[in-house]
Every structure is written in C-alpha cells, then in structure tokens.
C-alpha cells in the first residue's frame, strides 16, 4: 500500500516547487469526500431498515434479520478508528494528497459495490458476508477521509481564515443528507414498492460513483499542502505517528475526543433517534417527518458557514463554548418541543440542527489545531473517530432506552449531560489548543 500511495504522492517534489492550490480547488477537494461520507450514511441507514433485512438475510425471522442488518450498519463505527490509524499513518508519512485519494477510492468503491451485491436468495450466506465486508471497507475509508479533508483545507488556508476553510468539509453533512433524502423521495414517488425492492434501492449506491469520479479528478490535480511540504523539507516526519501521539499528545487526544462528544450525541439524536421516535411513538409518517428533518437540515447547512466566520473573528473556543451551553439548554426543552405537535417538531428540528451547525462548523479546525504537522493527520483522525464511538455509536440505543424506561425528558437530560462534559473539556483545553 505504501508503494501504491507513494507513486501518486508529490512528497518527493523539489523544495523549490512553487505550485499552489487555488482556494476553489482546495475547498471542492475537501468537500466532496465528506459529502460522499454523509450521503453514504443516510443511504445505508435507510436501506438497513427498508431493504437489507429482506434481501440479505434469511426471511424466516424478520426480527432477527432486522437486528443483523443493524449489526452490519454498526461495523463501520469499529472500522473507522482502524482506518484513522492506517490512513493517518500514511497521511503523516507520505502526504495528505495521496492518502486522501486512497481513502476516497476505498470508501467510494465499497459504496458502489454494495449496490451491485447479489441477495440471499442468489448466494445464500455469502450475501450478508459480502455486505459486511463492503461496510467494513466503507468504515476504513471514512476513518481516513475526514481528517485528511480538514487538513487539506486548513493547511492551505491563510492563518486568519483557518475556521472558514475548515468548515467546508463540514458542509458535506447537510449536502449528503439532502442528496440522499432527495433520492429516496424521488424513488418513492416514481417506483412501485416491488420495483424499488427489485433494483430501485441500488440506484443511490451506484450513483455515488459520479461523486467519487469528481472527487478523484479534483484530488489528483492538487498539490501537497504547504505545511506538510515544509515538514518534509525540514525532515520533521515521525516514524510512527500514533506512538508519538500516545507519548507526547495524550492530553490533546483525550480532551479533543470529549470536546466533540456533544456534537456527535446531538447529531445522532436529531437524525436517527428523533426520526425513529417521531415515526413510531408520535405517529408521524416517514414522509411527514422527513420533511421536518429536511427543513432542519437547511438550517444546519446555513449555520455551518456562519460558525466558520464567527470563529475566525472571535475565536473557535468562544463559539464552541457558547454553542455547547446552547446545546445544554436545548436539551432541557427537547421533549417539550418534540411532543408539541407539528409546530413543535419543526421547532425542535430547526433549533437542534442549527445548533449542530454552530458546533460542527468549527470542530474540524479545533480538533486539528493541537497537533504538530508531523502527526496532525493521525491525531485529528483518531480524535474525531474516537468521539464518534463515544458520542454516536451508543446515542440512539441510550436515548431509546431512556425514553422507553422513563420518558422523553430524560433524553434531553442525556444531551445536556453530554454538553456539560464537552464544555468542561473545552475549558480545560485552553486558548492555545483549540
């Protein structure tokens, strides 16, 4: 893998190479991968509920099939830290550009292959095994994608615009949601259920090939980031980046992980849990609640660039502190809003996802900032993906358990508690670290 990556790496370019990347090319190159990431998340999550239990697992036990389908969904969470280690290592040793190309190809091809897999009736137990393998491939690619995309943006940014540049990869979340939701809305309006189950569900997976092609074209035509090139020229590369992080940057790794926990808890409550609870316990149809979420996602997309601008003007730390306090307060009113009829549901979605934009916009630059160039790819990737395990993987399960055993109010308390933890870690991080 090292040889394959090095062949497309510009790391060996002369120190006198003065080629630079245009801002537009940098921002498109950093945005396209995260757009695919979230497009994949929503498409896979929807298919894991509607399609995979029926096509990739034995039909004799529907409940067991659904649980097994959700199990394949969770595989990516455990693969992501592995991907962060692998791609982070090469990103810090060989270069950002080449590693981002490899991560995008791993992620994109795995997604496309899912749309081409045979079902259980055709190949038996091989079907779920292939599905799990492709899902693991997605997780590997995703583990290396986010950190590299953020560094591609920030290491090409002017010092006074780091947060503005770093928010572009974050726009992949709302764009990916809108693209995937739009796909499924169009398919539901133009296809019968039988047609959708036969081949319609495959279209979004295969169509992601177009995004991958655009991403590869842009990324193959960029040069290495100036900061990494300087590190090469000064021979500042680290032999084993993760070892250096564990030896010299454990504090940044731990604090950064929990700084981002509230971000992940909020996101998965506002998407996975709220959709599930709204369409079951609150009686909304999937189409109704999808519209509610789409309106909220518009505000998510609008507040990300606002947060980037404010972070460059007033500091990321200040924006994150105020936003995290806002998340805690929102948690106290979460159940009241969600259970307040259709108007309350819209208000809950808009406020929650707007706050998500304000915390998600600056978090990329904040997590990358504490680490020196030689270990920054590994450090940022590990921090983000560890935060996803603590904040994302268990959030829907914990929220469902709390709401079922106690009440929806306790889900809000859970969100407020996560915000309190993140707020404490932001304060402990200090001005210089985020």
UniProtKB/TrEMBL annotation:
Chain segments annotated as transmembrane: 65-88, 100-120, 126-152, 164-187, 199-220, 253-277, 289-310, 319-337, 343-371, 383-404, 410-430
Annotated Gene3D superfamilies: MFS general substrate transporter like domains
The Major facilitator superfamily (MFS) profile domain, residue ranges: 26-434
GO CC, any one term: plasma membrane
Domain of life of the source: Bacteria
UniProt keyword DNA damage, yes or no: no
Family annotation (Pfam families): Sugar_tr
Stored InterPro entries: MFS_dom, MFS_sugar_transport-like, MFS_trans_sf, MHS_symport
Database matches in CDD domains: MFS_ShiA_like
Compartment(s): Cell inner membrane
Membrane topology according to the record: Multi-pass membrane protein
Gene Ontology MF: a single term: transmembrane transporter activity
Keywords: Cell inner membrane, Cell membrane, Membrane, Transmembrane, Transmembrane helix, Transport
Name of this protein: MFS transporter
Organism, scientific name: Metarhizobium album
